[in-house]
Amino acid sequence: MSKTILRAIFAVAFATTGFLLGSEAFAHLISLRVASQAWLVALKVLAPTAGAVLGLFVVPLAQSIFELELGQTEKALEKLTQPQLMGGAIGLIAGLLIAWLVKSVLFEFIAGAGTAARYIAILLFIFLGVFTACLGARVGAKQRIGSLARSVQGDACAPKLLDTSAIIDGRLAEIAQSGFLEGPLIVPRFVLQELQGIADSADASKRVRGRYGLEMLAKLQESAPLEIDERDYEGVGVDAKLLRAAHEMNAKLITNDYNMSRVAQVEGVRALSVNALSDALKYVVLPGEELRVALIRDGKEAGQAVGYLDDGTMIVVEQGRRFIGEQVEVSVATVLRTVAGRMIFAKLKARAEAS
Question: Alpha-carbon distance 189 to 316, whole Å?
């Protein structure tokens, strides 16, 4: 139905244009070169009619081009974020304003040039308006006007782009449920496809992790605004796609991949790590502090035993192997921070007092 209406609109517009052009051609060109009265009467009818018919022949081509461009525009708009849409809208209004100013000047020069000239000027104004509007929309979208509003509201309101590793981790849902995570959470379609690929993997361990990630994503959707972004980029990997999308959306990247965080830093993208947040929230332990810990397994070095604090921090106890399976009093010797998190080295309390 919409195609039929569009075809009718194009037919009326192009037929009218052809008719007026034919009339002007007869009045200013043909009638001056024909002396026969019969031919003048015939051409006065034939010229506008021929123009209208030619206009109708152009309609299918014009409509196909219009529909093709409309489809491409719709796909492009689906990939734009809110900041880009705001910038594009402002650029669109600015472009239309420029076109209107040009039209006002143009009409002054052709005011006495006849009906066809004024009609052509209107068409030129339409094409000029479309051109300046599209140009303004593209330039405005690149400026990301909406990001300025977010900067006034605060950096916390910036959108957060989720990596596969952060989704599979599972802790992000609890963080969002607690209310500490602000701003829209965005999951690109290509990340969902990667997650689905992991869930469908032939490897049992990968399959379990992938399905757990999908469950966590559904849980996350219940406690935080979650958006699916449809943009995609050909010829690059998922990591490169994420960084490019983060740049375009002016978003922060949430990932638990250490290497990805480093690359994001080099690329100028702010990366947030759930591991780093967890490490920052752990109980602060200082050298010399006394703790009570359950030793559960051997350490890497001779005589060492390993235990864990309530927050999951690993503690290595020197000469504690013979106490595996028991709870012992220890004194903290050293606290190390590694890529994987925090590690504590301690001595048995009795040994520490003897030394």
Answer: 43
Residue 147 binned pLDDT confidence (cut-offs 50, 70, 90):
very low
- Residues 350 and 339: their CA atoms lie apart, in Å, by 32
Q: What is the DSSP string of 51-78?
A: HHHHHHHHHHHHHHHHHHHHHHHHHHHH
DSSP 155: G
Q: Would you call 299 helix, strand, or coil by DSSP?
A: coil
Q: For residue 254, list its beta bridge partners.
A: 162, 272
Does an H or E element contain 308, and which?
strand 305-308
Domains of the chain, CATH where assigned: 2-146 (no CATH), 154-279 (3.40.50.1010), 283-354 (2.40.50.140)
d(CA 188, CA 228): 6
Rg (CA), the chain: 35
Span 233-285, pLDDT tens digits: 888 888 888 888 888 888 888 888 888 888 888 888 888 888 777 777 777 78
CB distance 285 to 344 below 8 Å: yes
Sheet holding 252-254, edge to edge: 226-229, 185-188, 160-162, 252-254, 271-272
pTM, 2 dp? 0.49
**Would you give the DSSP letter of residue 137?**
H
For the chain, give the mean pLDDT: 76
| Predicted pLDDT at 119 | 66
197 — phi, psi (to 5°)? -65, -40
Distance CA 168, CA 325 (A): 32
Sequence-separated (6 or more) residues with CB below 8 Å from residue 317:
293, 295, 299, 304, 305, 306, 307, 323, 328, 330, 346, 347, 348
Most confident of 24-28, 147-151, 308-312: 308-312
Distance from C-alpha of 214 to C-alpha of 195, rounded to nearest angstrom:
7
CA distance 281 to 303: 31
